[in-house]
């Protein structure tokens, strides 16, 4: 993967998102997909903090609409050693202008064929606590080609410059896990269909959504978050455990 150009970095900070072509290769995507498939295959056995549904019900035993697995790299640490993970971390460093580190959070989202549910408009920052000030960059990496009909990412350019808007659980259902924001002018949305190996990257305030999967194939995306590596993390390592 070539370094980003100054123009790409400027586009990212101006619009709040960027399409990155050829982040990774098909072989590694295949490897990641096999590993993630093993997690989705035992979705119902995973501890509750790892497994949610982004559809109407956040947790249920029935047919999943949009299963999501959080902290995939805690479940399968080898995922952090993949070329895809390393390439995303390198690009994060270029975008952030310093050494980048995994925030610790990552997730995988599956949209089964004809799942009938969009992932609603939201800002990732709505899930963080009010004291969260860190600037992080979020890579959305589909494990295959992805079209608008399959549920590619859509962004509102410039929305990263605004505040975190009021969010509510999907369709105001208290049993929903996924958050939603009302009143988004979807006419301004930019859809980002991708080829396998490409990715999008966005900021915590950038408004985004994905449509329902209207195709016969499953849509799977792996999402990785990086921030600037903080010196104090190294200091803590040097100091060792504090009594
Ligand atoms: O993959 C999806 O459907 C939604 C992804 C998303 O909203 C996110 O990563 O924040």
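^ Assign residues to that structure.
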């Amino acid at each position: 993967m070539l370094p980003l150009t100054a123009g790409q970095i400027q586009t990212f900070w101006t619009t709040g998102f960027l399409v990155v072509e050829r982040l990774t290769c098909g072989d590694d995507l295949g490897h990641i997909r096999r590993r993630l498939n093993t997690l989705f295959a035992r979705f119902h056995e995973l501890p509750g903090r790892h497994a949610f549904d982004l559809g109407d019900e956040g947790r249920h035993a029935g047919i999943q609409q949009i299963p999501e697995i959080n902290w995939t790299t805690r479940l399968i640490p080898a995922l952090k050693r993949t070329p895809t993970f390393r390439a995303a971390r390198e690009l994060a460093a270029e975008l952030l202008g310093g050494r980048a580190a995994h925030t610790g959070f990552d997730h995988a989202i599956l949209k089964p064929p004809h799942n009938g549910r969009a992932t609603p408009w939201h800002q990732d920052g709505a899930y963080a606590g009010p004291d969260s000030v860190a600037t992080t960059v979020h890579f959305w990496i589909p494990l295959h080609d992805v079209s608008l009909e399959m549920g590619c990412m859509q962004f509102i350019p410039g929305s990263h410059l605004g505040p975190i808007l009021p969010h509510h659980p999907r369709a105001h259902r208290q049993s929903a896990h996924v958050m939603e924001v009302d009143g988004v002018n979807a006419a301004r949305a930019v859809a980002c269909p991708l080829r396998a190996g490409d990715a999008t990257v966005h900021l915590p305030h950038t408004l985004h959504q994905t449509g329902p999967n209207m195709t016969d194939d499953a849509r799977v995306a792996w999402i990785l978050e990086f921030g600037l590596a903080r010196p104090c993390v190294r200091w803590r390592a040097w100091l060792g455990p504090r009594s």
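The CA atoms of residues 106 and 224 lie 5 Å apart.
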